[in-house]
Write a structure and sequence with these properties.
Blueprint: H1 2-13, E1 20-28, E2 39-42, E3 48-50, E4 56-62, E5 66-72, E6 79-84, E7 90-95, E8 120-125, H2 126-130, H3 137-141, E9 147-152, E10 155-160, E11 168-172, E12 175-176, E13 197-202, H4 206-209, E14 216-221, E15 230-240, E16 245-255, E17 262-273, E18 288-300, E19 304-318, H5 328-336, E20 356-372, E21 376-392, E22 404-423, E23 429-447, E24 453-468, E25 472-490, H6 491-499, E26 508-510, E27 514-535, E28 538-549, H7 553-557, E29 559-562, E30 565-570, E31 578-590, E32 594-613, E33 623-626, E34 629-654, E35 657-670, E36 675-676
Parallel strand pairs: 1-7, 11-14, 30-34
Antiparallel strand pairs: 1-4, 2-3, 2-5, 5-6, 8-13, 9-10, 11-12, 13-14, 15-16, 16-17, 17-18, 18-19, 19-20, 20-21, 21-22, 22-23, 23-24, 24-25, 25-27, 26-27, 27-28, 28-31, 29-30, 31-32, 32-34, 33-34, 34-35, 35-36
Length: about 675
């Protein structure tokens, strides 16, 4: 009787109805894109769910009345919403991304702590990136301050603050790009059409990105996948007058309504161009033909994701005949003349004759990510790359074979852990990342004397912690790397380098046909950087760092010439790692009507490796006469060098008119000879 009376009393007082359902979507307030893995919490009752790949969520068993809903995601501002469940059961939650600095984009998903960086960073994205379509990677970046281009025919390499090649680390989708990049016309096999954004970190960044990042890092991010159900298709047709180059590109993105967690993409492009034209004469045999194809599939679960992608690059390009001299007289005439000999015979047509190069590059990437609640994010990436290069010399007899054949295979694996921010006070927190990397690389060379086979093993471990306060950030990082390289030199190459004292016999095992020479390199790297918000729209960056670059296989063992390397070059086995001590300071203004950034920097590089001409007693360059022609002799040596300079850009908007100017100055100084490097 008492129980019945109590139940009746509860009913009269209004027993709460806890059968309500709340559903909705979480959306990025800036881009309008759906946000997955967002934790939706109900302050009363303790219910919590995570949004799906399409941003949707559903919470059941809610009691009627007023509720407080919290949307929590580490890289977005906290959102608290008060609602009456009896009046609103469909909800759209817009979250604002956290932007502690004025940087435009996330630099790289894996090793980057967040959007802010203590170094100078410039980006190419959106409409600015779209306007560069049809250009190669280096030319697309050429208008950014501090970036210039090293061109050879239709090939081009980016130069960051006066340095290029192996001193610039290139990343595509978080994986370092590995190819033969030591020749003048060895352009990076990266497809600009596969870029949704490109970022350049200027200055040494060895702790975060690994060895070789002495001058900077080029980061290429693919476009974001489609998260909403549907199909999106994009096509582009581009033409260029100089070189009569035409390009066609297409991309299809998809997301199935029944499996909205799965997104995919297929893209490809084809380009062909004739020889280039200078103001006074054509560049003979500089035609190019290139095509690219790629695909991505990604499944986004509630707290995990899995991604698989591949890309294929195929390039065939001629080498200008102006860099090859068949006789001594031709070589001497070139030194004294403003134009190549026989320039009247040059033609700018689509024919690609010897000498030329044919390159293919394939990469397959598998990445998995896991969000561990209240702990952090774990990410593992495996990538396999194979770079196949054939360089075709001018030969006396008809043949279809390449005279220089390179095949570079690279396996890389990375494991990264980003811990949850640790609050140290009301406005202070600690953020950090720990990473372990590994690499196995094998290069097989066949052809005329030039380069040796080798097998390399390497790995590294690094940690970065960042102290974040309301107006000030302090970052500290440390890294250690090790590389072991086993080179297999042909008998004649070993004898040639040994005669000239450019190899250490004690580190080599002499066989009948090949000599194995081993090298081991260790490198420790440190960085200390700060970012200060001086006032609204004004920030300053100050960075002190070290970086290390291991000598490349060509710097150690190169012995010969090729169409992409028109000098007689000799390596040096006993070269040690380059080590730089660098500092940079950056001041940035960011207002609606004025944007400006000025950076000053300086680097001292110990054992800086460079290719220097071998001089006779009278000061003239020593030359070698081969079947291919006459070539100046160059040797790899190590010196102590200093690089310093500044970058600056200013942009202003006055109504519909935008004006901008940028510039940079860089000088390099040979400490040993007390003279500037040329």
């Amino acid at each position: 009787m008492t129980a019945m009376t109590f139940a009746l009393l509860l009913s009269m007082l209004g027993n709460p109805d806890c059968t309500s359902v709340l559903s909705g979507r979480v959306i990025d307030a800036d881009s309008g894109e759906a946000l997955s893995r967002t934790r939706i919490e109900v302050s009363s009752g303790g219910q919590a769910v995570r949004s799906k790949a399409d941003g949707s969520f559903r919470i059941e068993g809610l009691c009627s009345g007023a509720l407080h809903i919290q949307a929590v995601r580490s890289d977005y501002a906290l959102r608290v919403i008060k609602l009456d469940i009896d009046q609103a059961r469909q909800l759209e939650i817009f979250l604002k991304p956290i932007r502690l600095t004025q940087e435009a984009d996330l630099i790289v998903r894996a090793p980057q702590l967040k959007e802010s960086d203590t170094r100078s960073v410039v980006s190419l994205e959106g409409d600015a990136l779209l306007r560069t379509r049809g250009k190669n990677l280096a030319d697309a970046l050429a208008d950014l301050p501090g970036i210039s281009v090293l061109r050879s025919g239709n090939s081009a390499k980016p130069i960051i603050r006066g340095q290029h090649g192996s001193r610039i680390l290139m990343l595509y989708d978080g994986v370092r790009h590995e190819g033969q990049d030591w020749g003048l016309s060895h352009g990076p096999e990266l497809d600009p059409f596969a870029a949704g954004a490109m970022h350049v970190v200027k200055g040494s960044a060895g702790v975060r990105y690994g060895p070789d990042a002495l001058a900077g890092v080029l980061i290429v991010e693919p476009p974001k996948l489609l998260k909403e159900p549907g199909i999106r298709m994009e096509t582009q047709t581009i033409g260029a007058l100089n070189g009569k180059r035409g390009t066609m590109a297409a991309r299809i993105d998809g997301n199935h309504q029944e499996v909205s967690e799965l997104s995919w993409r297929v893209d490809g492009n084809y380009s062909r161009g004739s020889g280039l034209q200078t103001p006074n004469y054509p560049l003979d045999n500089t035609g190019v033909e290139e095509w690219n194809v790629g695909g991505i599939a990604e499944y986004q679960g509630d707290c995990w994701s899995l991604k698989l992608s591949f890309r294929h690059n195929d390039n065939r390009s001629g080498t200008c005949l102006c860099v090859r001299k068949e006789t001594t007289a031709d070589f001497d005439a070139q030194v004294l003349s403003d134009t190549p000999p026989y320039v009247e015979l040059y033609e700018a047509d689509y024919e690609i004759d010897r000498p030329f190069q044919k390159v293919t590059h394939d990469i397959v990437l598998l990445r998995g990510a896991l969000e561990i609640e209240d702990v952090g994010d774990l990410e593992a990436t495996y990538a396999f790359q194979i770079n196949v290069r054939g360089e075709y010399e001018i030969v006396r007899t008809a043949t279809s074979f390449a005279q220089h054949n390179f095949k570079l295979r690279t396996h890389t694996a990375d494991i990264l852990f980003r811990h949850k921010p640790v609050p140290l006070g009301q406005t202070i927190r600690l953020e950090g990342i720990l990473g372990v990397t590994g690499m196995l690389q094998e290069n097989v060379y066949r052809g005329w004397p030039l380069l040796s086979d080798y097998r390399g093993y390497g790995g590294g471990i690094f940690a970065i912690e960042r102290l974040v306060m309301s107006r000030w950030e302090l970052e500290f990082g440390a890294r250690f790397d090790h590389i072991t390289r086993n080179a297999y030199l042909p008998k004649k190459t070993y004898q040639s380098l040994n005669r000239e004292g450019r190899i250490d016999p004690e580190s080599c095992i002499i066989g009948e046909d090949f000599t194995q020479c081993d090298s081991n390199f260790n490198a420790g790297t440190l960085s200390l950087g700060s970012l200060i918000k001086i006032a609204e729209g004004i920030s300053a960056k100050l960075d002190f760092s070290t970086a290390t670059r291991m000598p490349t296989i060509d710097e150690q063992y190169l012995n010969g010439t090729s169409p992409s390397f028109p000098v007689m070059a000799r390596g040096r086995h006993d070269l040690g790692p380059e080590t730089s001590w660098s500092t940079s300071a950056t001041l940035k203004l960011d207002y609606t009507w004025l944007k400006s950034e000025v950076s000053v920097y300086g680097s001292y590089i110990d054992d800086y490796i460079y290719l220097a001409p071998e001089l006779r007693e009278d000061g003239t360059v020593r030359t070698d006469v081969l079947i291919q022609g006459r070539f100046p002799r160059f040797n790899y040596n190590a010196i102590n060098a200093i690089y310093y300079g500044f970058d600056a850009e200013v942009q202003t908007r006055m109504g519909p008119i935008e004006l901008g100017v940028d510039g940079s100055v860089v000088r390099a100084f040979d400490v040993d000879l007390d003279s500037f490097l040329l």
